[in-house]
Structures are given as structure tokens and as C-alpha cells.
Specification:
Distance between the termini: 29 Å
Strand content: 5-15%
């Protein structure tokens, strides 16, 4: 557990710096908060330097007079710079926070925990400023987020969720996947299992699989660093809401709505209350593939049926004799990764030839990442531009999270009927689940 939020540590470190204008202190906190968001979003280790170009700093602090802010943060040790860059390779200088912000300390039962700490004399900060078309959504979600509260024992749950154990890791030859991506020197590189293990041995480490990600590290070191990173990230998510540090914007890549709850750990919702009520999830089963069936009615009838019925993953597992729970991973990898002549791909091509021909052709023409982008843009059009706008205009207060909604427990039955009716009117066939 951590004694205080990084935002409090940053606030305390920025306070004594001699600023010419009070607004510079606020901008310094805004810049630091934005940089910390990069660590959370990109899953970087907290000791890593992140390459940040001058364009990044200009984006966060557009005024030329704000250049001094970054310099002072480095000068006073809030940020550290590695001064390594390459114009030829397009690599900017690396920056990271002072490691003392992340020091781990034990907390007595009488000490306020990380998420309970607040910034004194604070004013609400929106550190991602939305474009004009998103202003009404920011107003809407700012109003709703301010009414969220948290159960007193949320810190205990955070400790549990962020504690990684050795039995959660898969090591070296026990990893079943043959090809995967590993982040090395801040670059995501694709390796075969054989080459990744060789690299791990060469550097005196192990190849580690944790959930669906892969790392080269020693297990004890990985467990300590990852547990610490998760603890800070989860606590930071709660802290931002408690301290009215709200953000709300549309993603330029896929038009998805990004705000405080879109990256919120699902298990933490059990400790969240909205106007004193539990939030219940309504989500679309195998949503991305239901959207694919919506976009292309000419694909395989068996694919369309199971995608719309919410049974696609179990159907794939049964037809291909796969372990329970592996159907989703296989379909996501095949649909959203590069086109490959592999056995798994061929098996799915035999099962859904029209769907896979469409996917492969789209990737070859537009790039493999663009198929996921197509589905996510359609999801955004359905869930944000369509459904959310409809619910807002009819006075309903809901939280959208990509292909799902979080609604008050007292309203879940009513809203589920309304959502199903809306999808029916819009011609979108799917299975809406209550979770």
C-alpha cells in the first residue's frame, strides 16, 4: 500500500518551486498528471524513461511562455531527464518522475490510505481538455462523476487486486503461445518464443507471461514492480474521482469516449456507489463480432447467428475442440492481428470462410490495425452517438464504457428494455447481458 497519491507527492514537490505566476504551478501539476497518465495507459514501468518530444509538451502546454515550466520541473528534481536522443532515429529525450514518489511504505491502521488523501485547497482540474463537440459529454459526465462515492474498504480490495503471486506467471517453455510482442527499450517488438527465451537467458532473466502480456525479467523483480505499479494505478483511478480530477474526450483514432471510468478496474466497481446505489453492468456479448455481423450481412450464417446470440466464443471452442475460455482469445488474435498462414488461422478460415476472407482482404488493403479500428468506430457510433445521445435526451443517467453501460441497480430492468428497443429500432442485433 502507498502512503499517498503521486498527485499529492507531485503537489508537495511543485509547491516550493519559485513560480513567477500562480497559473504556472497549476500548469506544472497538469503536465505531471498528463505524463503520469502515459505510464498508466501504456503500461510502462514506473522507473522507465518515456521519450517525450517537444510536440508533446507543446500539446499539453501550448504557450511558448510555458517552456520554463518543464525546465523548472527538471531543475527541482520533480522530473528527471536522461538527455539521450537521436534526431536521425526520431527518438526524443526521455523523462520520468523522481523515483522517490514511488517509495513503498507500511501504513498503520490510523493513517489515511492512498485513495483517501486529498489535495488541500484544490480546485477541480480537467487535465485533458475536450474538443468542442465533446463539451456536452464533459458536462454530463462531470455532473455524474461528482456523485460517485466509494465504500470504506476499497483500499483493502486494491491491495488484493494488485498483489501478484508466482502461480499467476507462466515461465519460459511453459508458455504455449509461439509468437507475441514484448516491450524492450520502450519499443514493442514481435518475437518467437524460441528467440525470446534465448534473449532472456542471454540477459540472465526469464521469459514471463502475465495474463496476455509478455516480459523479460526475473520473476521476483517482476512481481514486486508489477504489483507496485498496479497498486498505484488502481489507487490513482480512485483518487482522481475523489478529487474531481475529471477528463472526458473522444479518441482521435477510433472515436471511443475516454473518461475516468473507461479504464477503471472492473472489480473495483463492487465498491462504487452512484447516489448511494450499486452500479450494474449491461454489456453486449462478443460485441466486436456482433458489430462485424452488423456491418457485413453477407458473411457466414453460422458466424452471424452466434455473434448476434452472444455464443460465438463457446461455439468456436466446441467446433475446434478448444479449452473453455480460449475462444475469445483466439478470435481476437485472428481478427485483430496480422494476416498469417498459421494452423489456428486456417482452422477458423474453414469454420468461417466468408468472414475470414472479408477480414483478410480488409487488412491487406488498409493495414491489419484498421480492422479493429473499423469495428471500434462503429461501436462508438452505436454506443455514444446513438444510444448515449438517446438516453441523455430522455433524462437517463448512465455511464458508458465502450460496449457496456453501468446503470443504477434500481433502474437496470427499465433501462435494459429501453436499450433493447433502441437497438431493435436501429437494426443492430445483439445479446445484451446483465453482469
Amino acid at each position: 500500500m502507498y502512503k499517498q497519491s503521486i498527485l499529492v507527492s507531485i503537489h508537495d514537490a511543485v509547491n516550493p518551486i519559485s513560480w513567477e505566476k500562480p497559473i504556472q504551478k497549476e500548469k506544472a501539476i497538469k503536465l505531471c498528471t498528463s505524463i503520469f497518465g502515459l505510464y498508466s495507459y501504456n503500461n510502462y514501468l514506473l522507473n522507465d524513461y518515456i521519450s517525450l518530444s517537444s510536440n508533446y509538451f507543446t500539446y499539453v502546454l501550448p504557450s511558448k511562455t510555458d517552456f520554463i515550466i518543464k525546465q523548472k520541473l527538471v531543475e527541482y528534481g520533480v522530473l528527471q531527464c536522461d538527455h539521450r536522443y537521436s534526431v536521425a532515429k526520431g527518438i526524443a529525450k526521455g523523462y520520468r518522475f523522481n523515483p522517490t514518489f514511488f517509495e513503498q511504505t507500511k501504513i498503520s491502521s490510523t493513517t489515511n490510505t492512498f485513495t483517501c488523501t486529498t489535495i488541500s485547497n484544490k480546485s477541480p482540474i480537467s487535465y485533458l481538455f475536450p474538443t468542442s463537440e465533446c463539451l456536452h459529454l464533459q458536462t454530463y459526465y462531470t455532473m455524474l462523476l461528482q456523485r460517485l462515492t466509494f465504500d470504506d474498504d476499497i483500499d483493502e480490495l486494491i491491495v488484493k487486486l494488485s498483489t501478484i503471486t508466482l502461480d499467476q506467471l507462466v515461465l519460459n517453455d511453459n508458455i504455449s503461445e509461439q509468437y507475441f510482442h514484448i516491450v524492450i527499450n520502450k519499443k514493442q517488438l514481435r518475437y518467437s518464443k524460441e528467440k525470446a527465451i534465448a534473449l532472456a537467458i542471454e540477459t540472465g532473466n526469464d521469459l514471463i507471461q502475465y495474463k496476455n502480456s509478455y516480459y523479460i525479467d526475473l520473476p521476483a523483480s517482476f512481481i514486486a514492480n508489477k504489483s507496485r505499479q498496479l497498486n498505484i494505478y488502481y489507487c490513482h483511478s480512485v483518487f482522481k474521482i475523489k478529487n474531481s480530477l475529471f477528463y472526458c474526450n473522444r479518441n482521435d483514432t477510433n472515436n471511443r469516449l475516454d473518461y475516468n471510468l473507461t479504464g477503471f478496474k472492473k472489480e473495483l466497481f463492487t465498491k462504487v456507489k452512484f447516489d448511494g446505489e450499486t452500479l450494474v453492468e449491461l454489456d453486449i456479448a462478443n460485441a466486436q463480432f456482433a458489430i462485424a455481423a452488423h456491418l457485413n450481412p453477407a458473411i457466414d450464417a453460422n458466424f452471424t447467428y452466434h455473434a448476434q446470440a452472444g455464443t460465438l466464443y463457446s461455439y468456436v471452442e466446441k467446433k475446434l475442440d478448444l479449452p473453455a475460455g480460449s475462444g475469445k482469445l483466439l478470435m481476437f488474435r485472428i481478427a485483430f492481428d496480422r494476416v498469417k498462414p498459421e494452423v489456428d488461422y486456417d482452422r477458423v478460415r474453414c469454420l468461417f470462410p466468408k468472414f475470414m476472407n472479408w477480414v483478410d482482404s480488409y487488412k491487406k488493403e488498409h493495414g491489419y490495425k484498421m480492422f479493429a479500428n473499423l469495428l471500434q468506430k462503429t461501436e462508438s457510433a452505436i454506443m455514444i452517438d446513438g444510444l448515449l445521445t438517446f438516453l441523455m435526451s430522455n433524462g437517463y443517467e448512465v455511464f458508458t464504457i465502450h460496449d457496456a453501460l453501468r446503470v443504477k441497480q434500481s433502474q437496470v430492468d427499465q433501462i435494459r428494455v429501453i436499450v433493447n428497443e433502441y437497438f431493435s429500432t436501429a437494426g443492430f442485433v445483439c445479446h445484451l447481458r446483465q453482469r
